[in-house]
Design a protein that fits this description.
The protein has helices at about 10, 30-40, 50-55, 70-85, 95-110, 115-120, 130-145, 150-175, 175-190, 200-210, 220-230. The protein has about 240 residues and is mainly alpha-helical. The chain is flat.
């Protein structure tokens, strides 16, 4: 049975679950639900013990019976988001396709929940879903024939690429529309005006830059990365 998020089983085992002002029992999962909803609606600045307590209809100090602090809650929220991405994942028999699908799942879920992704992409949750993700990637690589050293290096490259793009692309999702449009239009306007005398290659590529730069290059970068992994030595 998967243990409850937050404090260790020894700490939480003796806790008597308290009722909130709404009449339901306060649990770690309800706290994670409320924290996720606050992040989704108000962004990282909207998450605090006071606001979380108000959302739960409970005294803010009650959350510390289940979590060591607000950062502990953020890690639990981050791990749940990762869990959504990997739920139901069945690896393809082709190790490259398996890793590609897994990374795309995580990227897609993070971009779909940009406010949560902004606090999640650079954290180490050390919780069940993160452990499952790491174990899955290493298993795919080891069963493909890579050594432990080779598998770890490739895991690190995959995770860093996936999470970096997830953070960047999620960040773009929460930019004000006028800011995003200004950045995108710069490739059509400012870059098209450069002189071929000083920037001949930009001038030559200006049409393609205007077309490609506003679009995430995650899948392209991922395919380059996986191709660069090479083949296991014993295959």
């Amino acid at each position: 049975m998967q243990r409850e998020y937050g404090r260790s089983p020894r700490v939480t085992r003796g806790l008597r679950r308290r009722s909130t002002a709404g009449g339901y029992q306060l649990t770690a999962e309800r706290i994670i639900d409320a924290a996720t909803n606050l992040l989704e609606r108000r962004g990282p600045e909207g998450l605090s013990a006071r606001k979380l307590g108000m959302a739960l209809g409970a005294d803010p100090t009650a959350i510390y019976r289940y979590f060591t602090g607000m950062d502990d809650i953020v890690l639990a929220v981050a791990d749940r988001l990762l869990g959504r991405a990997i739920a139901g994942f069945v690896p393809d028999s082709d190790w490259r396709l398996a890793l590609r699908e897994l990374a795309c799942r995580v990227h897609r879920v993070y971009v779909a929940h940009p406010h949560v992704a902004q606090v999640a992409f650079c954290r180490v949750t050390r919780r069940p879903n993160e452990l499952a993700f790491v174990e899955t990637v290493l298993r795919i690589l080891r069963e493909a024939g890579f050594s432990t050293d080779e598998a770890v290096l490739r895991y690190r490259a995959l995770a860093d690429t996936m999470l970096s793009f997830a953070g960047q692309d999620a960040g773009a999702e929460v930019l004000p529309a006028e800011v995003l449009e200004g950045d995108d239009s710069a490739w059509r306007a400012a870059y098209s005006e450069v002189s071929s005398d000083t920037h001949p290659y930009i001038k030559e590529a200006r049409g393609l830059l205007a077309e490609q730069m506003p679009i995430s290059s995650f899948v392209t970068a991922l395919d380059f990365l996986l191709a660069g992994f090479g083949n296991p030595r014993n295959n």
